[in-house]
Design goal:
Strand content: 15-25%
CATH class of the largest domain: Alpha Beta
Number of domains: 2
CATH architecture of the largest domain: 3-Layer(aba) Sandwich
Shape: globular
Structural class: alpha/beta
Number of strands: 17
Number of helices: 18
Largest sheet: 6 strands, mixed
Distance between the termini: 41 Å
Length: 451
Amino acid sequence: MKKILAILLAGMMTATAFAGCGGGASSSSQGGSSSQGSGESSAASSDGGGATDEMTVDANTVDPSLFGDENNITLKVWAPDKAVSLVKEQVEAFKKAYPDKTFTKIEVVAQGEGDAGTQLLNDASVAADVFSFASDQLNKLVDAKVISEVAFTKTVTDMNSPETITAGTLDGKLYAYPETNDNGYYLVYDKTVIPEDKVGKLEDVLAACKAAGKKFIFDCGDGFYSCTFAFTAGVKIDGLEEDGVTQKFAQYDEAEAVKTLQAFSKLIKEYKGTFTSLNVAQIASGFSTGTLGAGVDGSWNTTADQDALKDKFGAAKLPTITVDGTEKQLVSLFGYKYIGVNASSKFPASAQILAYYLAGETCQQQRAEKLGWGPSNKAVQEMPVVKDSPVLQAIAQQAQNACAQVNIAPTFWTPMGNLGNKLIAEETNPDDTAYFTKLLKDTIANVRDEA
């Protein structure tokens, strides 16, 4: 970080000298779609230990002087598999945006956002310089000191939605460039199977699927999805305890929570053969073969689901479930995806500038258009590609009924997956209150590593 600061500060002093001699203006620190190469030079002070945020030219590029003396640049980028092709195109556009720099190689490699943090921690020295990751991994990356602070804090903050900035900030420092505001799941369905007025209730969705001889897919064995059972029951996570490791839970009504879990179990038993626990990768193929009526899927699979259903494609927030005559909204997990910079990068300034570019307005718009990803960039959020997307609107509605995917202990996922598997198990009796009470207590104890 000191090296980056030195490069950035040197670039600012150079630009200031040119401006003082009547040279052309070089930058604007405002977000949005300002014209490239216009505006006035701006320099805010560094916070002393954090990153300096100056000399952005527009929403996508910065003043070339910020590369400092870095040349013959070699970088590695980790991108999720489905985005690799597009990221390669974006990297080529990035290189053209800086024609005076020599890029020896910028390699784009497939690496899932869910695994990027773990791989970086294994050996940061051989990991990617720039990488995408999910919001729940930020704590461990910062604690291990393998991620650099964002070098253009003010501009990035101005351009992106406040919640993504908050989730990417620790101890007052922004550590990651927001990439998406859509890391959640929703109900995807075949409109010829389920009428639009029936997607609001889980009971109606399952009934429509059964009547049509179609399956409903929900991945009960994956804690990312099956935590919905606990959250809907009122068991909400509330960050980490003071030790920074142990998962904290908000207060909840145990009797109500148990009744809710029993309601899920009873409904799933009632629709045995229709309700199916499978990996979400099976959803698009199920639509393609005509065996699936609906499922719970994520934004990252939008394109595949749309290709499979075509004009039959439907999307909605998660439905409700009836518990003792009262409809309860299914509560999901919702987070954000970020682009981070490896603190061990041999080209730290170049890595920061590339991360800024890939997280910028143009690249976010391209990902929205070609991949269906929901942008964190405020300008892109107002574009028709977002406003007219039933998927992104469904995800936005579900986000109002979700727990934030930040400050999650590594011990959270497996117990939540086990909860889902036991809830749907053939031998589980939905009427056994004592069993579900113990299951709930054991799940929380295992998440907190107290078993």
